[in-house]
Amino acid sequence: MTTNTSGVAQITPIAKSTDAAEVALATYDQLLVLLHSLDDKAWRAATECPGWSVADMVGHLIGAAEANASLRQNMRQQAWGARHRRDHCGNPLDAVNALQVSEHRSLAPAERVSMLSSLAPRAVAGRMRLPRLLRRVSVPIAQSGSSAGMPPRLRLGHLVDVIYTRDVWMHTLDIARATGGEVDLSAPVNARIVADVVREWALLHGQPVDLTLTGPCGGRFVSGAGAQRLELDAAQFCRALSGRAPGQGLLRQLVIF
């Protein structure tokens, strides 16, 4: 089998001006296909996110979608996170995540799927409405709790165009791993997300790259000369960069998911 080779510098970033909305909607669609396939036992399965079942993880995603669909909801959640960050290692994001899980704990599985399906297009539309001036604003990322070791700052434009989509995508993989469910990683949206992760990772560490990612959403990515060749599964690569799996060498450079 021939592996497609891409120059890292030639990968077009996911952005509002390119395909951010399209990628985000396709990522939600992929998640919803998986959720429709789950039985009641699967919803109770533990995930690799400490303390979260599959149902809890979906509750978090519903809460995030609510915040993206409504400025008032977003501000309420952020204010709650700021007030309760001390209960979560000083990390307001972890506090917000806990709130999202708690507020949807009473929902039945079918209600969770229905609610997320309804919210997804409104959440993506809300993200794309973020004004240009706010998109340039850089905000700090707490270096504690679940985001320890992540890049210390994040532009709001990158958050709404890319990071929320990565969150949905990675949690889709989390749920599949927890339940034995299947995700069609040959769908184009997966290769698009993986390539964008590679581009950002290479920019962050700034070293020559000769990376081969195996699996249906992988490829070969090169940048600079004299790089040591690195080969691993594409999904495992992203799990390492998100902090879900151990990484050595350049794989210790985390990327925000």
Automatic annotation (TrEMBL):
Instruction: Return the InterPro entries for the record.
Output: DinB/YfiT-like (IPR034660), Maleyloyr_isom (IPR017517), MDMPI_metal-binding (IPR024344)
Q: Which domain of life is it from?
A: Bacteria
Q: What SUPFAM superfamilies does the annotation carry?
A: DinB/YfiT-like putative metalloenzymes (SSF109854)
Domain Mycothiol-dependent maleylpyruvate isomerase metal-binding: start-end pairs = 29-176
Q: This chain belongs to which protein, by name?
A: Mycothiol-dependent maleylpyruvate isomerase metal-binding domain-containing protein
Give the species this sequence originates from.
Terrabacter carboxydivorans
Instruction: State the taxonomy lineage.
Output: Bacteria, Bacillati, Actinomycetota, Actinomycetes, Micrococcales
